[in-house]
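Much of the work behind modern protein science is quiet bookkeeping, done one molecule at a time. Below is the pair of lines this work produces for a single protein:

***
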Amino acid sequence: MARKSPDQRPTAIVVGALFIAATVFSILAGVVNAPVLAASDIALAAAENAGLMGVSTVLMLLACASIVAIPIVLYPIFRRFSEVGAVAYVVIRVIEAGFFLVGALFVMGLIALGQAEQVNPGVDPGVFAVIAALQVGLYDAAFDFGPMIAFSIGAMVFAALLYRSFLVPRWLSIWAFLGGVLLLVEGLLIIFGLSTELTSATLFLPIAINEMVLAVWLIVKGFDRDAIAHLIG
């Protein structure tokens, strides 16, 4: 008698929800701290809006947790198909979350810098402005290497695992892989100072839409039962 494969529907729902959570938390973090980062005196604005920056940091930490949780939840399934691929996916997403964490530390650093400016009125404000600009630059760099470079590589590894395992329709995994490639190109363009608003919108949208479509698919449809039976059985 054939062994009945365990139900992986809850896993699919959790993964779909984590994809949505990671996206929502990261977007909200950027929206919350955007007014401060656009201020003329960033450090002072960060100190005056410490609560807001704290919320942004918490959102970034929640995004980190969601990002790391995705490959961990998928690991028991992926490892049955490819141990190397499953481990690689975990490592890449941990690296991505690490860059997010670094960005969160720089955000919190702006608060401390602003507070130092408040209690040292005799110090040239230009000094604090230079340090704040450096911290924002490092924050942007962490975003470029984390959510852009590391995420795009992780998306390609994830898509390859989905494609070969048949867990979701192949058109979804092909879309995810191409979206990851396009985002990697955009990340490289940013690093070399060649990105424009047009390239940013054009190259970012495919993977952004794909993630949400995939998340909804996993929540509503789940993994392909035949593929799960083949991997586990």
About this structure: Residues 190 and 196 are 8 Å apart (CA to CA). The chain has a mean pLDDT of 90.
